[in-house]
Prior knowledge:
Strand order of the largest sheet: 19-20-21-22-24-23
Number of strands: 24
Oligomer: single chain
Amino acid sequence: MSEIYITGHRNPDMDSLCAAYAYAQLKNSIDRVNHYTAVRCGHISDNVEAQFGITGLVPPPYKRDIRAKVVDVMRTDVQAVQCSLPVYELMRTMKKYNERPSVVPLFDKDTFKGLLSIDAIADWFLNDHIGEYPRYEMTLDNIERVLKCKTLKRGNPEVFNAPILSGAAHVQEHPDALIVMPYGEKYIKLAMSYNVPAIVLTDVRGNLGKIDFSGYEGSIFISDIETTETIRRLRLAQSIESLLGQQGNVLQTTDLFDDAKEHLSSSNLRGLAVMDGEKYVGFVTRRCFLRKPRHDVILVDHNEPDQSIRGVEEAVVREIIDHHRLDAPKTDLPIFIDAEPVGSTCTIIYQLYLRNSMVPDLSTAKVLLAGILADTILLKSPTTTGLDVLSVEKLAPLAGVSDYRTFGKAMFEKVDGLGTRDPEQVILEDMKTYRENGLVIGISQCEVPTLDDLAEYSSKYMEALEKTRKANNMDWALLMITDVMKYRSMLISSGHKLEKRLSYESVADHVFDMKDAVSRKTQLLPEIIFAVNG
């Protein structure tokens, strides 16, 4: 099952949020193969959040980008191993895998210690066969684990570093050795006389005679395995942690695929640990980066890449549902596009419900109703079509709304005035960028309960507009301020020589009365395009 994200544009408004939510509900109802999740790729303004609250639902969750990340390729299928266990247990664990991993995560109880690579294991085996009398980090617990032997005497030390000798003939040369030998009273006493850390007896038949072990401080084990196999297993009794080699910097689940790939490829390591904050969650190896994953996404209420979720150029765009002009990203395969000249994307979504013989539930109907009324400004916007009106009339009873006008008015009454809002936030929360005749133009729009206080606050908004223009490398920035209830708008400009071509009445420096214009798309944008190309 594929996860497919449905997102609106970067400056979420009601139509964008409502369309994403409602379309995810529809797709999950008619597609049993994939799962659809509504998200938003920008932060919601206080006003939009308050307006969305009228639906009684929570807005779609925020997803910053859709780029491939470490979490998309990390491995979680390799069993973690306790670092205190013997190498023998590591070999048994590795044998379970048909395709052996190149690294194994090591833990000390619940604490992540590092990744043990196949290279570190190979180095250990090579070093074990180079030179004379290799030494091993031993613990009494691990001796018991690998031999499954009888412990005749458990003494001290519990942990020691020692070579392994077969027999006690050369104990005087290696008095700190672990001695493995068949039962022989003479040589047992000889080994004990040097107080070796441990003795492992093999081929023990019957009792141990009258040997006195009371003066011996070390440990004595009786192995049921013959001497050669006992020695082989003891060489694997060393703790796994002692093999742990160089460790690289850890990655986070949210790290970008390309950055993580570069980080690993520039090192000589087999893999890197992946953390979610401070918690270990998996690892990546070089094989994880052979193929870059691509997320599936559906765009609603927009189609231009610059307005979309970050990383959309890396994603697979599956569908586009929109009511704006088309400047969609190039796709590898044919996709479903429903672009219609209506007042709201939610109108198109509702029509898709009907085409699929589906009826939205009460909550979804309310979401669709709110989206249409918000984007058509209570069906008063010049973008409003007969299909928008019809959709509202059909959705209202499904949403349990007796009077859609009262419902819509209550939604717009949640909008704050200019004096209580941050000018920069107002400008950025619904700004759309256009490129026309070599110019980069940013146009924002906000709704207010009144325009009577514009003169008092226009200078602050003008300063914020100019600051935003410079910060975003724009040639021209404009803010359209609309009084929804009185069906009137004012325009503030950052100041550009093309201002003089605008047909609106200038009421102050860089401030224009748009009178009964309320649509950025069908009224302001054509005016700007004419000014640029005129």
